[in-house]
Amino acid sequence: QLQLVESGGGLVHPGGSLRLSCAVNGLTSRVTLNLYAVVWFRQAPGKEREEVSCINNRDGSTKIADSVKGRFTISRDKAKDTVYLQMNTLKPEDTGEYLCAAVDHLTGCEGHGGDALDYYGRGTQVTVSS
Q1: What DSSP string runs through 3-50?
Q2: 92 near 129, Cβ under 8 Å?
Q3: Which of 20, 51, 64, 75 has the fewest Cβ atoms nearer than 10 Å?
């Protein structure tokens, strides 16, 4: 059983940066981060949940939403069992609850359909405001 814990959210001015972390706990020497893809979602009040980015830790392939392309970058540190979301040039419309989720690497970034994920974190709030 995995536990995903997000951190790094906060209040930032427009144009600022934040780096979110998704720590994947519960991994073992046999059940490693390589077996999972990790997805970052966000949800603003009154809006549908949006997939922001995904990384398949098996091969390092990534996906990024058009709305954040060129500003956000997903990465991972296998030694720390952590996936990061670097967010630059933040805009007020980036405000929302950001949460990470994990799915097996075979389903991966292309197959989860937004709701067929195995594990979810509890989220971290990002507020972009002047």
Answers
A1: EEEEE--EEE-TT--EEEEEEEES--SSS-GGGEEEEEEEE-TTS--E
A2: yes
A3: 75
